[in-house]
Amino acid sequence: MSTNRKSDGISGILGAPLSRRDAMRLGLISAAGLVAAGNPALRAMAAPAAPAAAPAKAKAVIQIWLWGGPAHLDTFDPKPDAGNDYTGPLNHPIDTNVPGIKIGELLPELAKMADKYSLIRSMTHRNNGHETAAYIVQTSRPPGGRDVYPSVGAVVSLFKGADAGYRGLIPPYIVLTEPQGRFSEAGFLGGRYKPFATGGDPGRTPFAVEGVVAQGISDERQKDRRELLHKLNSLEQAMKGDPQLTAADQCENQAYDLILGDAGKVFDVSQEKDDLKDRYGRTTFGQGCLVARRLVEKGVPYVTINYKGWDTHKQHFQEMRRKLPELDKGLSSLLADLSARGLLDSTIIWCCGEFGRTPKVQWEPPWNGGRGHYGNVFSVLVAGGGFKGGRVVGSSDAKGEEVKDRPVYPVDLIGSMYDLLGIDSNAKLPHPQGQEARVLPASSEDVKSGGRLKELM
User: Fold this and answer.
1) d(Cα 159, Cα 421) in Å, to the nearest integer?
2) Which of 162, 183, 184, 206 is nearest to 63 (CA)?
């Protein structure tokens, strides 16, 4: 995981030990790392060229990861006739603006724009472990194999990042605000394709992105520090023209362009109008959605909003009354904002967790009204980037306990997204030991599939 919190023994400019966090605050270590991650000249020697991409409808992806697993019955697959043991107090689903589609009663803003998204109500993998289920949903492969495969974000970073022409200073794979776990990153692709986790809180001003925005340090102070470093750098003055020092100087210049120039301002939501920030919701999630829009607007190919807190074994319905309005406000505003700016047609949104939650409420102690893990059937919202809106794929049975028709497996959703992004599902992935590894499992790997989501494409 990319927490960047451990001291790595870097020496300070005056000889004193300098922790990694201190180096970040100086705006040197992390920013230079960002530049290296996004600069093709600095990365070219480290990776093979990505295969040529097919024509694409989508240019970017925003993944809304509901870490812990949201309840499908309370969100996108309500079952009001199942009875209180299944619905609990949330037993009044609401109509959407698409006839025949109802969603949970705590999602009124999303109900007004069901024409902009579609629902998959028959997603399944039957795994109930957080990490193992997260691995399946984000790689399409079963856990426990010889290799740890890369997540969707890492694959998109490979095929749509610097090796494929991305030229931004911001890395091509961003997570707001912390990685989802060790099985949601780069796998055997290695550190170059891990997400850049921003840290901080988008709901606070300033949004203190690690290595880009340091709380309490003004731009003027950053400039003064840079001048001091140059005055103390006798090696640079003694070895003018040295190729390695010249390259390091170029990297430093780009790092400071990121910190003090326009590129880093993409994280600064204070530039947005107050009424827009209000519409998204003045919450970590809501402002994270706004930052995600700003990032894809600047050309970043993959952004994950890691929205924690959905593992509701206890006090489930109390938590739903808090979290669902946040989700409703942030996600509906993101859809509307992308659409108004002409970005929804080229930006895929997929929203789900690693599984659903038990349809039957666990009223007994110690749960006292909770829902457990449930991978037999759950729901996913998809929108944009070539996915049609206003449709429902598949269904669960009367109580939301099993797939009734059209099972959809993670490989089907991921493969459909790759198709829309112009990524060849049969393309080879660079394996460190030279083993055969492809973007999606081959038929010989016996991974269950219901087929691409042609109903939505």
Assistant:
1) 9
2) 184
- Strand ranges inside 148-299, DSSP E: 173-176, 196-197
Higher pLDDT, 384 or 53: 384
Per the structure block, which two tokens stand in for 284? Answer: 């970590």
Find out whether the peptide bond into 195 is cis, omega within 30 degrees of 0.
no
Phi–psi pair at 52, nearest 5 degrees: -65, 140
Going by C-beta distance under 8 Å and a sequence separation of 6 or more, which residues neighbour residue 226? 256
In angstroms, the CA 150 to CA 428 distance is 13
Tell me whether strands 173-176 and 302-307 are parallel, antiparallel or unpaired: parallel
Average pLDDT, the chain: 84
- pTM of model > 0.85: no
| Domains of the chain, each with CATH number or no CATH | 39-213+268-456 (3.40.720)
Is there a contact between 297 and 291 (Cβ–Cβ < 8 Å)?
no
* Dist CA 428 CA 374 (whole Å): 33
For residue 45, what pLDDT is reported? 33
In one-letter notation, the amino acid at residue 195 is P
CA atoms of 329 and 107, how far apart (whole Å): 8
What are the E-state strand segments in 67-107?
94-95, 102-103
Measured CA angle at 288 (ends 377, 291), to 5 deg: 125
